[in-house]
Design a protein that fits this description.
The protein is α+β, with helices and mostly antiparallel strands and about 150 residues long. Helices cover about 45% and strands about 15% of the residues. The strands form two sheets. Strands 2-1-3 form a three-stranded antiparallel β-sheet, with no helix packed on it. It is elongated.
Amino acid sequence: MTLLAIARPDGGLSLMRLLDDADPEAELAKWQTVHPDGYLGYHIIGEADVPEDRIFRNAWVMDGKTIGCDMDKAREIHRDAMRAARTPKLAALDIAYQRADEAKDDAAKAVIAAQKQELRDVTADPRIDAAQTPAELKAVWPEVLGVTTPSR
């Protein structure tokens, strides 16, 4: 089986697996009927060239003849995952805050407000921008969000 890494004009990367007897140029012509913007180029790669960890799949780019990672895109993907993980936690804290407000418990409201702010601040963690590799970025997952980085 032949594997093509196709660089798209939008900066993304598509992978196409071909049967061994398929002509890459003919298959790419078919691909263009579905993707009218076309492609910038392609390389034949091996299965071993495809990263096993696909968490930042939507940030993959062609780096020469290998698959690389656009770290700016990966950082946004990571921040979006953090936002998704914090959403139910913030909703639960909203309810707790309302109950504390109804009970006129100012101390509880202050604690809850601080917890909510901690959750809001997770996407501003300077380690996100400092990460130079997908592995370093993946390691940035604050305990306040619970489990380690979810698989995406």
